Amino acid sequence: MTTAGAHPRAGPRQQERGIPSPRTWTRLEFLLAGLLLALAAAAWLLTGALAMPEMSSGILTGMQPMGDGAGAVVPPAAFGFFLLTWVVMMAAMMLPAITPFMVGMRGLLGARATTGTLAALTAGYLAVWGGAGLLGYAVVRAFETTAMGGGPVAARVGAVVLLVAGGYQFTPLKRWCLVRCRSPLALVMRYAEPTADSRFGAFTVGVRHGGYCLGCCWALMAVLLAAGVMSLLWMAAVAAVITVEKTVPRPELTGRVLGALLVGLGVTLLVSPGLVPTMA
């Protein structure tokens, strides 16, 4: 006996993850995946248009202290612009990552998965990352202040960011969040009814899934802030790492390798902070 809307041809591993095999996707599910990826592509283009040159580098890539001209932008305007850009960036980086979850939810709910339901799920997910932008703004401002202390000081602070991010890869919390971010079947099954009952219920489920992904990826986002929050190159690099973590067959091994690389780079910069400009 199968759940309504589920895909009986999906293999055991795919069913464990709550993600039907692409071979079993319906036309509507392919359209849903295509729409999410198209929105992500549009968000990448918009990020490129919004990107400010002075924020394309960070304390890991030779950030220069902002001059007096920066004071021409009042703090509320700067804060609002940062949040706008941050939300667009998160849409660009995370919409591809949640596509399998959305397809799995649509397959489980079947005809009950209306456009409003799926939009509320996506909005809830992005709301979590939008909220994270509040802390992200404070971190960026702290990095700007650090850059005023000179290159070696900024480089060593950046090295600490790398060490923290690398060390987090080995923690039980990272593994716990990654398992739930990679395998959302329990979330999908448990909250299928509230998702179908109301858009608020769907929004809440999106928030829960976004919380797991934030717990999984916050340290990598800190590295992005330190490398250049509006750098398309570093955005692509971090997005690629996140995608690999969520799709490779052995995520634990991948996480440990990534953690070791981040820790090794952090130690290198602590010893030789003069290497920072070469990373730009």
From TrEMBL:
Pfam families: PpoB2
Region annotated Disordered, chain positions: 1-20
Residue stretches spanning the membrane: 30-52, 73-98, 118-140, 152-170, 218-244, 256-276
Kinase among keywords: no
Keywords: Membrane, Transmembrane, Transmembrane helix
Protein name from the UniProt record: DUF2182 domain-containing protein
